[in-house]
Every structure is written in C-alpha cells, then in structure tokens.
Target: DoxX
Amino acid sequence: MKGKGEFMGALIGFFVRLYTAVFGTLERITNGWLLGLASRFIFAAVLLQFFLNSAMTKIGGSITNIFTPTAGAYAQMLPQMMEQVSYDTSQIAFFPYGLMVLAGTWGEFILPVLVVVGLFTRFASLGMIVFIIVMSYVDITGHGADAKTIGALFDGEPYAIISDDRLLWIFLLLVPTLKGPGVISLDWLFGRMYRKREMYY
Model:
C-alpha cells in the first residue's frame, strides 16, 4: 500500500510539474503582447464594421454631415425626447442634448478605429465600454427592447443581444483596457520610439 501511495504521489507530482511548466512557459512567451493584439484583431473582425455602419446612419451616409448629425441620430440616441418634439430636431437644445448626439456620433467613428490601430488604446477601449453600456441602456429604456432581446444572465440561452452579446463585447474590450494593445500597435511603436529617444538624452 505504501509503495502504491508513493507511486500515485509521484505521478500526481509529475503531472503538476508538467502542467506548471507547460502553462508557465506559455504565459511567459505570450505575456505583454498576445492578449492585447488578439483582442484588437477580434474586435476588428467582429465589431468594427458594425460600429462604423451604425455611425454612418447617424450622418445620413455622408461624411460631409459629420458636424450635423441627422434626425435619425437624434432618434437613435434620444428616442423619447424626439417623440415628444415630433422628430423636429430644431426643438432640441444643442446644449447638452445636441452636443451629446454630436459626441456620440464622433465617438462611434473615432473610438473603434483607435482600438483597431492601437492608438490611445486603453482610453479608446474604456470609451467603447462606456459607449456599449449607454447604448444598451438606451435600447432598453428608450427603444423598449423586448425580453428576448434583453435576455438574462445564467439562463442557459447565450443568444440575447444585450445581456449576452454585449457583455462579451465589454469583456473583449476589458483586455486592451487593462493589458494594453500588445504589439503591432501605434502605442507600442510610439512607446518604442520614445524609449529609444530617451536613451540618447
């Protein structure tokens, strides 16, 4: 019995050391570059076009309207207020409401691009998280999203647009917010140039 127990202990110890060695090595060789890069790549592949298309609807499909969002932009962001004024944007004060629509429109263009190219990545990723939270709140309270669209956590149905999809979007953006952009990013490139410059001064 003692021999069998020693053998089992040695076997368990071997697998623990193997596990630690394999995943410790994996963590070391990917630390500081892979997670940020992978999260930005996935964001670009899955969500970039979605946000840019959404932003284009706010300016009527023409970049010349970037300073004058359409009534559709107001209806998307301030649905109840627009209903109250019969969709007449001239009855909505620029400050703060028009400014909010303008900032939201610009944010939907600028922040996703900053995330993808990796410039001011932590700020842009955090901004996108806030944008998604606000968008979800407006969808629920302003656009009256139904229960199926809202969904619920821990319900065994991972298909709801708001509670499931957008929670995953937020987690995806938490990676560059907390870990940085990784390599192949403008932040990494400028940081490298700055460090080289500091070495000469």
Summary: The chain has two domains: 1-31, 32-199.
